[in-house]
């Protein structure tokens, strides 16, 4: 760990760096976290900034931004013009800054481009160039995932950023499977650094931004306690590194923004509802959703919301659906919202036709529809192979929807099985169609016990997974690294 403590004053100014921030640009849980945690930190008294790349998104065109900086730097031999824009009215509850660089940071989506490495090098270099040129020295810089993984290394070992040497860095690992690997021939794109320190960038003979982040940051967090330990066993090649750096790590489960995810005041819902009328309220929303997708609202409704990706266990869904809907004795509707793996998408299209009237499928992602499904569903299934924290199960519980989850990562930390004292969800051990199917049969038995269902729904809606507790833990960490 680098000795970079600036003074004994408590942290007052924290800058978050991320590739995503809801509602500006969101692909997954990273965007939700970076759109919520800073708001709670700001409300607690910290001057909290969020810095992300500029995207051609509706939020940007619909809000007012002021240009606060223009400059030039070189990425290898390429001359780049950087522009920093600040959202004028702080409508998100914190200060939002966008870094715009023509042809690199001015695109429609966060990911999926062939020059992604160059994009995120430019984002990180542009950020450091801006704050160094303008004399901005925050108390803490908080980096999220590999997209910002080079920041601590460049701060502490870059030739041009000596003013930031004493600024502590906190890193959060949202998903250790993605690491931003780059060949060493791309090192020429980095700003000048102490080449004697090249080993801090290297892991398995490539530049690994996530590895560099963990090696160089002052302290790192994971998005649940369970995931902290799982990274030492399953981290796409970085297991040994996470074990070596264990002493400077903390697991903090994510929270949810209870103002955004609120059944009482959610404008996306067919009809908002409270804990006192959870069953009639959910039924009205179920009826509206089922009517839209040709399903039967009198039957229990099971939902899946998420990417069609192996780590989410989405490839298991076709067999799970066949197991359940192929059983003529089962009364059940299933609603699927997601996109990704083309094979899963094709299977869903086939199954939606085969089980018309029992299976609704929407390929893609719609924020409004996801809220409507959480409110309408009786159960939400998450057969994840890897789930660092998981937010969907937290959203579902907020809406009185019982989660059916595989016991891994944050799912294991946040969902207690109904067979345990005080339990409120359904869990299963292995990411297999058989285990998931058995869990769904347990859910159907529970559904037939109306009194127990209502009791569990109310219990779920009383659970506190807000950001208040988690934000307080982050504040403690900021004070620790600046002490």
UniProtKB/TrEMBL annotation:
Pathways involved: Glycan biosynthesis; glycogen biosynthesis
Superkingdom, taxonomy of origin: Bacteria
CDD domains to which the protein is assigned, alphabetical: GT5_Glycogen_synthase_DULL1-like
NAD among keywords: no
InterPro entries (UniProt xref): Glyco_trans_1, GS/SS, Starch_synth_cat_dom
HAMAP family: Glycogen_synth
Listed NCBIfam families: glgA
Its job: Synthesizes alpha-1,4-glucan chains using ADP-glucose.
Protein name as it appears in the record: Glycogen synthase
Organism: Parapedobacter luteus
Gene designation: glgA
């Amino acid at each position: 760990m680098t000795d970079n403590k600036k003074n004994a004053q408590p942290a007052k100014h924290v800058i978050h760096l991320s590739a995503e921030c809801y509602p500006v640009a969101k692909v997954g849980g990273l965007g939700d976290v970076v759109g919520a945690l800073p708001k709670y930190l700001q409300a607690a008294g910290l001057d909290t900034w969020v810095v992300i790349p500029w995207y051609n998104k509706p939020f940007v065109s619909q809000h007012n931004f002021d240009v606060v900086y223009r400059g030039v730097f070189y990425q290898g031999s390429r001359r780049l013009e950087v522009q920093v824009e600040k959202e004028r009215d702080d409508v998100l509850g914190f200060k939002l800054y966008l870094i715009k660089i023509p042809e690199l940071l001015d695109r429609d989506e966060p990911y999926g481009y062939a020059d992604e490495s160059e994009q995120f090098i430019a984002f990180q270099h542009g950020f450091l160039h801006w704050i160094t040129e303008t004399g901005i020295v925050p108390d803490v810089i908080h980096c999220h995932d590999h997209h910002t993984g080079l920041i601590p290394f460049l701060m502490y070992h870059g030739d041009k950023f000596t003013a930031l040497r004493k600024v502590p860095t906190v890193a959060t690992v949202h998903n250790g499977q993605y690491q931003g690997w780059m060949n060493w021939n791309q090192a020429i794109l980095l700003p000048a650094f102490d080449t004697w320190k090249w080993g801090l960038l290297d892991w398995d003979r490539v530049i690994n931004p996530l590895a560099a982040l963990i090696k160089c940051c002052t302290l790192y967090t994971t998005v649940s306690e369970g995931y902290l330990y799982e990274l030492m066993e399953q981290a796409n090649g970085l297991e040994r590194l996470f074990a070596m750096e264990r002493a400077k790590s903390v697991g903090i489960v994510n929270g949810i923004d209870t103002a955004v995810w609120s059944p009482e005041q959610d404008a996306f819902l067919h009809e908002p509802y409270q804990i006192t009328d959870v069953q009639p309220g959910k039924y009205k929303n179920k009826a509206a959703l089922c009517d839209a997708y040709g399903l039967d609202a009198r039957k229990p409704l099971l939902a899946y919301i998420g990417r069609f990706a192996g780590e989410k266990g989405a490839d298991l869904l076709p067999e799970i659906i066949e197991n359940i809907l192929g059983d003529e004795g089962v009364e059940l509707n299933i609603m699927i919202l997601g996109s990704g793996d083309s094979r899963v998408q094709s299977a869903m299209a086939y199954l939606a036709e085969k089980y018309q009237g029992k299976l609704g499928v929407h390929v893609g992602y719609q924020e409004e529809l996801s809220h409507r499904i959480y409110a309408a569903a009786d159960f939400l299934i998450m057969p994840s192979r890897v789930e660092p924290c998981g937010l969907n199960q937290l959203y579902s519980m907020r809406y009185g929807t019982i989660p059916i989850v595989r016991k891994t990562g944050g799912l294991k930390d946040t969902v207690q099985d109904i067979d345990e004292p005080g339990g409120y969800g359904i869990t299963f051990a292995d990411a297999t169609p058989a285990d998931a199917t058995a869990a769904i049969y347990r859910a159907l038995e529970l559904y037939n016990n109306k009194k127990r269902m209502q009791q569990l729904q109310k219990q779920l809606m009383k659970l506190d997974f807000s950001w208040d507790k988690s934000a307080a833990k982050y504040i403690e960490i900021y004070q620790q690294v600046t002490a």
